[in-house]
Sequence to fold (235 residues):
Amino acid sequence: MRKYILFLVFPFLCLKPLSAQIGISVMEGYGKYAMDDLKTLQHSYLVNLPVNAEIVNNFPARPFPEIKVFYFLKILSAGLTYSFHSTGSKVNYKDYSGEINYTQITNLNAFGQFVRLRFLNVKHMRASLSFQTNLAYTNLKLSQTVQIFDENASEAYKLKAFSIFGEPGLDVIFPFKNFEIGLFGGYCIDTKGEFYLNNDASMHITLPDNKNARTNWSGYRIGIMLNYLLNFKKS
Fold:
């Protein structure tokens, strides 16, 4: 736990200016998620069904919220970030005799740090390169329901995973006094943590090649941001 706390506060330890700005950023993004192992798991389930089911959802790109608190000095800023991501998949078959549903719902709580380096500053516009590193806590729910006439059967599993991901990006900001409106874009690279059962860390999901299923939140991120800056001087 101590090393994770140090990881989060490290950006603030690096900046000790005489005067600076504290900023709060509220962001709404749109992200695409690779999820290759979970897609493999879904395909394996699909081909082993005795009926011709269809994929209703296959881990689509989804909107996500993000908030940042940062310390800004001249061309450099650094701070903390939190974001929440969610996506999933569904296989469905339905006919006169009943219905089959297989779903995977996964969500991510990401806590991290970021740094931003400005390389362009013209009238009413700034552009910066950014990089953030996140501690990624993933939850996954697998569920299956089978209904045949009046008979129903269901089962569900809850799993977790931990990984770390990096995200290089580009920000374009338009300042208006203490407020800023901006656009951001980047690409997330996930280190892919293994899934395990909530109540038994020794139990994993096994893929057809006998490897353990892992997360993969890798993919592009784009969106808009609204920043508020507070000026202060250090005595």
